[in-house]
Design brief:
Elements (H helix, E strand, L loop, with lengths): L2 H15 L31 H18 L5 H13 L8 E3 L2 E8 L2 E9 L1 H5 L6 E5 H8 L3 E8 L6 E8 L5 E7 L4 E2 L5 E5 L2 E6 L2 E5 L15 E6 L8 E5 L6 E9 L2 E9 L5 E6 L5 E3 L7 E6 L2 E5 L4 E2 L4 E2 L4 E5 H5 L6 E4 L5 E8 L4 E7 L2 E10 L2 E7 L6 E5 L7 E7 L6 E6 L4 E7 L9 E9 L5 E9 L10 E4 L14 H6 L6 E5 L9 H5 L7 H16 L8 E6 L1 H12 L6 E5 L18 H4 L5 H7 L4 H4 L9 E6 L8 H12 L4 E6 L10 H19 L1
Parallel strand pairs: 34-35, 34-36, 36-37, 37-38, 38-39
Antiparallel strand pairs: 1-2, 2-3, 3-4, 5-6, 6-7, 7-8, 7-9, 10-11, 11-12, 12-13, 14-15, 15-16, 16-17, 18-19, 19-22, 20-21, 22-23, 24-25, 25-26, 26-27, 28-29, 29-30, 30-31, 32-33, 33-35
Helix pairs in contact: 3-15, 9-10
Length: 706
């Protein structure tokens, strides 16, 4: 073979290898200072013609590649089978002697709200009665309705408020619905599209927070004013009960029931993590409860108010520790004569994940090194009786379907390789019975789960889970996907990897979940360690886990990808700017990326307690160190990031992903982009869209990392 021919072959090979998304050197591209003058503000016009044209163009370019990947069709069909399977567990709520469930499948794309009895539910083939068919409603009204929940009045459970979203947005239309006739109430309570907050007072009255007009919503886009609305009157005639501040996140009404006693409450969230709680008296006058500003009310049972502490509370009698669940009698609290008792205290490796209650019991779901442990408490003459409910370890436990009317609850358990098991638990009898089990969606026998701990620079042990084939070679070549979130005190817990197992593990992938600081895996302190000026702690934890995977020779930069959504989309965007050499694939889903303007876009103002206020120079000084949009460089080699978002996401503005992609394009960096024209913050509004989006993501990852 002569030299000229060899050079020609090499050139042809190089052009073919790079043809999908050629990556230029970018050696001469001029940087754009988006802090001073943002050339892509027009992409914040959500439905603007120019912006939507841009979206469709970049959707097409990316989909032409991703939909034609060898496994895309196979993954898409497999995902639809999983999401639409008839043998999925139908999770329920209890109301008035019936069990209710919202269900989607291939025949009910938008879904049906339905009910059955406990005996029927326990059977292999429950008999369901359809209450509301959202598909039929959408067709009849020619609207793209997405079901967003139902709120029924207690204890009658006769009248309900149905929330319907156009295309999956958080904002909803509210309509009154009669459960007995299974129909909407003629001339009933109806609210126009807004981010509403409602609570039943009685059959003829509601507490309502909505968009009443000028100056009635907060800067974050949530209700600022609560009014009392009487049936048969126009909403404009509703009486104002409470007015918050523009700077509040929002103001919301709620109703607590303790046996036959009803309590009306208003929560004024002045930040994402602090709030004032007010009870309403018989004249609807507000009475502020004397509890810590950053505490959370978790329930009311037998006259005892349940309170979760986010910081130490110094009381005259003692110090109640951060992360504890404490109780006090509500009547004594209202008289300023309260005494407090600790129900559960967090430890170095234990945090309270969730608190729920039935008629006579409290259920405290804890995390011990991220694995769930569930406790049951019951008030008695000596205080509280405690019992640990025996369930498998190192998985995720969740209590569902609890009711104020009885002490039956449903408990779900799963882990990364174990499909969900649903138990019926009769708390009064301490009787635990398996009633549902999800069939395996993939063969888990060849795989195993390990928990590792990465030692951070400050000595903190950061846990992560590793799911891989038992025969995985330690050769640095395993396609590895690292997932993280690290924000808002949200723990990432082990859950069954149905689609991940089918789309990723079975195709040779390794799956890793990093439980980095900023989340809630070890309680409030774990979260607060990465707040505001300490945000880089979360990003360094994530980078540290990635480096640990490389050091263990599990993978290498060439085969390592990262994935995160929402705050997790910011996470992967930030660490990619910090360490572009460490990753070869990045999925940034419904992300925050422009941290200079996040507080001016949709619900962004509500997150300043997490990130800081970019309009304050001292706070922008640390925010800009990680803001992906402001740290993208013209002359740097980045992995081809895959941005996904939704036009109908009214929580995180799609402009974040649009502008970041546009800036990458201006710098001649390659990327993939997909924006669903509907779907809300979840990125998809039905099972088919979810299946499609996941197929795109895993097709991209397999293309980049194998």
């Amino acid at each position: 073979m002569n030299k000229t021919y060899l050079i020609l072959l090499i050139a042809i090979f190089f052009m073919t290898a790079c043809s999908q998304n050629p990556k230029p050197e970018n050696t001469q591209t001029k940087s754009i200072n988006v802090s001073q003058e943002d050339p892509f503000l027009w992409l914040e016009d959500i439905d603007g013609e120019r912006a939507i044209t841009w979206v469709k163009k970049h959707n097409k370019r990316s989909l032409d590649i991703l939909e034609n990947q060898p496994l895309f069709d196979e993954l898409y069909e497999a995902n639809k089978r999983i999401l639409n399977a008839d043998d999925r567990i139908a999770y329920v709520s209890q109301m008035g002697g019936h069990l209710y469930n919202f269900w989607r499948d291939e025949n009910h794309v938008r879904g049906i709200y339905r009910r059955t009895t406990l005996d029927s539910y326990k059977s292999k083939n429950p008999k369901w009665q359809t209450i509301l068919d959202v598909d039929a409603l959408a067709e009849k009204e020619n609207e793209n309705w997405v079901y967003k929940g139902i709120n029924c009045r207690q204890p009658e459970y006769d009248l309900c408020l149905v929330n319907l979203s156009r295309g999956g947005a958080d904002a909803t239309v509210v309509r009154e619905f009669d459960l007995n006739t299974q129909s909407f109430v003629d001339n009933g309570f109806i609210l126009s599209e807004a981010k509403n907050g409602l609570s039943w007072v009685d059959k003829d009255h509601l507490l309502v927070g909505t968009d009443f007009g000028d100056d009635t919503m907060t800067d974050s886009g949530y209700p600022k004013i609560i009014k009392l609305w009487q049936r048969g009157t126009d909403i404009s005639e509703a009486k104002t009960i409470f007015t918050g501040n523009n700077s509040d996140v929002g103001v919301w009404p709620s109703t607590f029931y303790d046996n036959d006693t009803r309590y009306l409450m208003i929560t004024q969230a002045d930040s994402f993590y602090t709030s004032n709680s007010f009870l309403l008296d018989e004249n609807y006058k507000t009475e502020k409860l004397d509890i810590p500003h950053d505490a959370t009310i978790s329930g009311l049972i037998d006259g005892q108010l349940l309170i979760e502490l986010k910081s130490d509370w110094n009381r005259p009698e003692r110090v109640f520790k951060q992360g504890s669940l404490i109780t006090t009698r509500l009547d004594e609290l209202r008289k300023r004569q309260a005494t407090f008792e600790t129900l559960m205290t967090a430890t170095a490796n234990t945090a309270i994940a969730a608190v729920s209650s039935s008629k006579n019991h409290v259920f405290v779901n804890t995390l011990e090194d991220v694995g769930s442990v569930l406790y049951r408490f019951a008030p008695n003459e000596f205080g509280w009786a405690q019992k640990r409910i025996e369930l498998p370890a190192l998985g995720t436990i969740s209590v569902t379907g609890s009711s104020d009317d009885n002490d039956d609850v449903f408990i779900n358990f799963s882990d990364y390789l174990t499909p969900s098991t649903l138990y019926h638990y009769q708390a009064n009898e301490d009787a635990l019975e398996i009633i549902k089990q999800l069939p395996a969606q993939f063969n888990a026998e060849p795989y195993q789960v390990q928990q590792h701990f990465m030692t951070a620079a400050d000595g903190t042990q950061v846990p992560y889970f590793l799911v891989h084939h038992k025969d995985m070679p330690y050769n640095g070549k395993n396609p590895t996907l690292l997932y993280g979130y690290g924000g808002f005190e949200v723990p990432v817990r082990p859950s069954y990897l149905d689609i991940v197992g089918t789309d990723w593990l079975q195709h040779g992938g390794v799956y890793v979940v990093a439980n980095i600081r900023g989340g809630g895996e070890y309680g409030p302190a774990w979260h607060q360690a990465a707040l505001k000026e300490n945000r880089m702690v979360a990003y360094n934890d994530f980078i540290g886990v990635a480096e640990d995977l490389v050091a263990k020779n599990i993978t290498s930069a060439e085969h390592l990808g990262i994935y995160g959504g929402s705050n997790g989309g910011l996470l992967v965007g930030a660490v990619t700017m910090l360490r572009p050499d460490l990753f070869n694939a990045v999925v940034s889903a419904v992300p925050l990326l422009d941290m200079k303007r996040f507080n001016q876009l949709l619900a962004g103002a509500s997150w300043m307690a997490e990130y800081g206020n970019p309009d304050i120079p001292e706070e922008w000084a640390y925010i800009k160190t990680y803001s992906p949009y402001h740290n993208l460089k013209a002359n740097e080699n980045y992995p081809e990031i895959f941005f996904t978002t939704s036009t109908r996401d009214d929580r995180v503005h799609p402009g974040h992903a649009r502008k970041m992609a546009a800036l990458m394009e201006a710098y001649e960096h390659d990327f993939y982009y997909y924006e669903n024209i509907e779907g809300g913050h979840g990125g998809a509004s039905n099972n088919d869209q979810t299946a499609y989006l996941r197929a795109l993501i895993y097709s991209y990852l397999l293309m980049k990392l194998q």
